[in-house]
Amino acid sequence: MAGDVKGMYPGKNVTLVHSRERLLSRGYGGVLAGRVLQELEALGVRVVLGQRVVDEGEDGGSVRLKSGEVVPCDCLVKCVGQRPNSALVRSMSPLSVSETGHVRVRPTLQIADEAFDCMYAAGDLIEADGIQNARAAFEQAQVVAANIIRSIKGKTQKEYRPPWWEAATKLTVGLTKSVTYIGDGSAELVFGGTCAEDLDCAMVWRFLGANPFVDEA
C-alpha cells in the first residue's frame, strides 16, 4: 500500500512504520525483504523498522513512535494485523493454543491435543513455520477435507507437506513494478518485473471460470 500511495501521489511524504527489524519477517527469506525495502526506498518511501506507534496525538495530525520521534501525518492507515479467533479451541483444549493465539497442530493438521483427534485447523489460524497465504490455506483445506474422509473410513491420516511452489508470491511495489518470490526454505529466488494497475485481476477471473468484470462507469 505504501508503494501504491507513493506511486499515485509522488509529491506526498509516505512513511511506513514496521515493528519488526525487517519487512516480511514471517516465513519469507531475507533476500525478498531486502529487495522490497530497496524498491520502496527507490520510490521515495521512508521505511522505519523496529518501531511502533505508541501515541496518535490529540489532533490526529501526528503519531509518536516508541523511540520518541514524532511523525506528522495527514492520513494514518493502520495495518497492524489481527489476532486469530481461536476461542473455541481454547475453551476445549487450552494447551493447543499458543501464546499468540494460534492453534498448535500436528502434521496431519489435527489439533495438538490427541484427545481431540476429530478437530482440525488450517489457514491463518494455525501456528506454522511456513508462509501463510491464500495458496497455503487452500492446500491445507484439501488435506483437512481428505483426512476427515479418511477418518470416517478408518484410514491413516495424510500429513500436510508444503510443496515448493506454495510459497510463490508476487508483490506489487508501486503501481507498475513487482517483485516475485519463490522459495522452499533452503533457497530463494527473487526477481523483479512489471505489473498492471489492476493486479492482473482479469487473469484471476478467467482462472476461476468467470468473465472478467468490465467497469463501464
Written description of the protein model:
The longest helix has 20 residues, at 134-153. The protein has 217 residues and is an alpha+beta fold. The protein folds into two domains: 1-81 and 168-208, FAD/NAD(P)-binding domain; 86-161, FAD/NAD(P)-binding domain (3-Layer(bba) Sandwich), CATH 3.50.50. Strand 4 and strand 5 form a beta hairpin. It has a three-stranded antiparallel sheet with strand order 3-4-5, with no helix packed on it. It has helices at 2-8, 30-43, 87-92, 134-153, 201-207, and strands at 15-18, 46-49, 53-55, 62-65, 70-72, 169-172, 177-183, 188-194.
Helical content band: 10-25%
Strand order of the largest sheet: 3-4-5
Terminal Cα separation, in Å?
25 Å
What is the averaged pLDDT score? Answer: 90
- Could you state the CATH homologous superfamily of the largest domain? FAD/NAD(P)-binding domain
Low-confidence stretches: none
CATH architect. name of the largest domain: 3-Layer(bba) Sandwich
Percentage beta strand: 15-25%
H and E order: HEHEEEEHHEEEH
* CATH fold call of the largest domain: FAD/NAD(P)-binding domain
How many strand segments?
Answer: 8
Kindly provide the radius of gyration, computed on alpha-carbon positions and rounded to a whole number of angstroms.
21 Å
Features:
5 helices, alpha+beta, 3-stranded antiparallel beta sheet, 2 domains, FAD/NAD-binding_dom, FAD/NAD(P)-binding domain, 217 residues
